[in-house]
């Protein structure tokens, strides 16, 4: 990444094995109350030995992971009276409007009134003392006698029009409450479903499920001690039952599987997740979903044959050789209507090269997450392998390598040649991601695709412009922008379209080559996108997503899995499902 932070990884190995990524297993039972189970298997589980692959040498630092059992959550959609529900925690999502009170400081909302009456007025009294007003992010857990549940949790949803983010936060808050109380069974309900259409109820249940699954997940692979999650079952009350909600929650589980894989890839350190290991994980996806996936991993010699000089120049300094990853998804039956590609930046570690990252704020210690784009692409591949959309062929492409320093490495001032014949004067070895993407984009275009979305932790400039929660998007195509933004609105991930100002290209001109790889400090995210544009066929619709900000949570000191959900939604919008 140019300036600032970026990177990601995968993990697990005490000496010579690397274990499997999370998998979800769902079981549906036909009964008046619909339910199913989700199993989240850590990358390093006891059964992972039979799925492991060998690493030629011991992991640097002799790093190994916990051998933990997979937590399981059984979901059930029910239509029952909340006061009759029995379990550890009843979590109620309430908007600010739901918390309106009468002159006696009592709830006006019918459901809260009913709960309060059953609790002899203690709920309204206690929530008032806790200053709970229903604002987004607020939550309070009360232990009050009188209900079937041992505790009741109130979770704020914000304004009266609740969003995907609000319902997802409700699921996350309920999962957090379960962790804190060591609860094994919880229920989630909304204080009011007035104004929610049937489709909105289904979407709400899906978002709640997503929040609960991701809120339960903890990446403890590299901790010497860790607590096992206690949550075993979660009931979603009052949002419907039957096949439609089954489909929505199953879909949420599939996407969560991809998000968790993305998180674990980014969290894993570079001494464990090398380009070779990342390639093995891609091959594992292909073997797991062999009915729809195939894998082609190109080694250095094969990349030389394709004249990938830009990519190979970045990889030249590392003792860990480059691996070019190409996963292909094709439905097992039916006509292919669309061909699209997802391209992810795959720097498993970025030292900056000879322009080494130094000084405060360089975030070199976080440069494992410079493969956050690759993590999103492979996470989406895993999810799509479970969903199996029809009518769309998808190519998942990652030019995996490390950007290191050695006598064989790329130097400032070198001129390199990309696979489309264009020459690049390297004026900054720390602007390496775009050099790997150049050859990856040329390769993607050669697959005969109509649309390409690339994702990369590309520039610190984008983080400065949009902050830590929003990814910048760049595309010459208004139609593609509308498609991807619509997908992000469903997923709840935040995107913001930035301009591709052609006049800024002047700063990218070289006196001795076709271009340089960096411009000035001003508009750095824009000039990076303009650079990538040079390697995309004009007939192909293309979008670049710079996710350098939202790939990582400084607050949680953990990866977010950003991008997976939006990519899956976008692929489905291009399918015939």
UniProtKB/TrEMBL annotation:
Q: Which GO terms describe its cellular component?
A: chloroplast
The UniProt similarity line reads: Belongs to the peptidase M17 family.
Q: Which PROSITE patterns match?
A: CYTOSOL_AP
Ordered alphabetically, the record's keywords are: Aminopeptidase, Chloroplast, Hydrolase, Manganese, Metal-binding, Plastid, Protease, Stress response, Transit peptide
Origin organism lineage: Eukaryota, Viridiplantae, Streptophyta, Embryophyta, Tracheophyta
**What is the protein's name according to its record?**
Cytosol aminopeptidase domain-containing protein
What is the originating organism of this protein?
Answer: Solanum commersonii
The cellular location(s) given in this protein's UniProt record come to: Plastid, Chloroplast
Q: What SUPFAM superfamilies does this protein's entry cite?
A: Macro domain-like, Zn-dependent exopeptidases
Query: What GO molecular function annotation could you give as one example from this UniProt entry?
Result: metalloaminopeptidase activity
- Matching InterPro entries, A to Z? Leucine_aapep/pepB, Macro_dom-like, Peptidase_M17_C, Peptidase_M17_leu_NH2_pept, Peptidase_M17_N
């Amino acid at each position: 990444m140019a300036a600032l932070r970026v990177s990601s990884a995968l993990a697990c190995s005490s000496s010579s094995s690397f274990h499997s990524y999370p998998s979800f297993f769902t079981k549906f039972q036909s009964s008046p109350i619909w339910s199913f189970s989700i199993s989240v298997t850590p990358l390093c589980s006891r059964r992972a030995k039979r799925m492991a692959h060998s690493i030629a040498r011991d992991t640097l630092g002799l790093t190994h992971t916990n051998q933990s059992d997979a937590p399981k959550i059984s979901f059930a959609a029910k239509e029952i009276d909340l006061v009759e529900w029995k379990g550890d925690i009843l979590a109620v999502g309430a908007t600010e409007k739901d918390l309106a009170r009468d002159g006696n400081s009592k709830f006006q909302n019918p459901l809260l009134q009913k709960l309060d009456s059953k609790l002899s007025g203690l709920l309204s009294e206690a929530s008032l003392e806790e200053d709970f007003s229903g604002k987004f992010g607020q939550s309070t857990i009360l232990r009050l006698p009188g209900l079937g549940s041992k505790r009741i949790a109130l979770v704020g949803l914000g304004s009266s029009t609740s969003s995907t983010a609000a319902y997802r936060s409700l699921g996350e808050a309920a999962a957090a409450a379960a962790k804190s109380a060591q609860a094994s069974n919880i229920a989630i309900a909304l204080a009011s479903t007035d104004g929610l259409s049937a489709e909105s109820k289904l979407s709400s249940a899906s978002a709640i499920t997503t929040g609960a699954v991701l809120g339960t997940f903890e990446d403890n692979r590299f901790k010497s001690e860790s607590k096992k999650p206690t949550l075993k079952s979660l009931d979603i009350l009052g949002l419907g039952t039957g096949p439609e909600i089954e489909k929505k929650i199953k879909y949420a589980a599939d996407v969560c599987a991809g998000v968790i894989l993305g998180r674990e890839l980014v969290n894993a350190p570079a001494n464990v997740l090398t380009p070779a290991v990342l390639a093995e994980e891609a091959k594992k996806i292909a073997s797991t979903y062999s009915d729809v996936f195939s894998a082609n991993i190109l080694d250095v010699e094969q990349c030389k044959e394709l004249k990938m000089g830009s990519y190979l120049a970045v990889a030249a300094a590392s003792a860990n050789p480059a691996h070019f990853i190409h996963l292909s998804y094709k439905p097992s039956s039916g006509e292919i209507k669309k061909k699209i590609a997802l391209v992810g930046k795959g720097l498993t570690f970025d030292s900056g090269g000879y322009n080494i990252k130094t000084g405060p704020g360089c975030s070199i210690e976080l440069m494992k997450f410079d493969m956050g784009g690759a993590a999103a692409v492979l996470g989406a591949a895993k999810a799509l392998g479970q969903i199996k959309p029809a009518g769309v062929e998808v190519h998942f492409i990652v030019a995996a390598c490390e950007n290191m320093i050695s006598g064989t490495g790329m130097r400032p001032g070198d001129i390199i040649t990309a696979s489309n014949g264009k020459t690049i004067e390297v004026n900054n070895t720390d602007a390496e991601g775009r050099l790997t993407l150049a050859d990856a984009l040329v390769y993607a275009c050669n697959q005969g695709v109509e649309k390409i979305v690339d994702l990369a932790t590309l520039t610190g400039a984008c983080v400065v412009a949009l902050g830590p929660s929003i990814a910048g998007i760049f595309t010459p195509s208004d139609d593609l922008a509308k498609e991807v933004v619509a997908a992000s609105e469903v997923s709840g991930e935040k995107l913001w379209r930035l301009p591709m100002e052609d006049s800024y290209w002047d700063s990218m001109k070289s006196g001795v080559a076709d271009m340089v790889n960096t411009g000035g400090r001003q508009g750095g995210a824009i000039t990076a996108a303009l650079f990538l544009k040079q390697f995309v066929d004009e007939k192909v619709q293309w979008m670049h997503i710079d996710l350098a900000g939202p790939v990582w949570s400084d607050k949680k000191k953990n990866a977010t899995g950003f991008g997976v959900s939006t990519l899956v939604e976008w692929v489905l919008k291009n399918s015939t499902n």
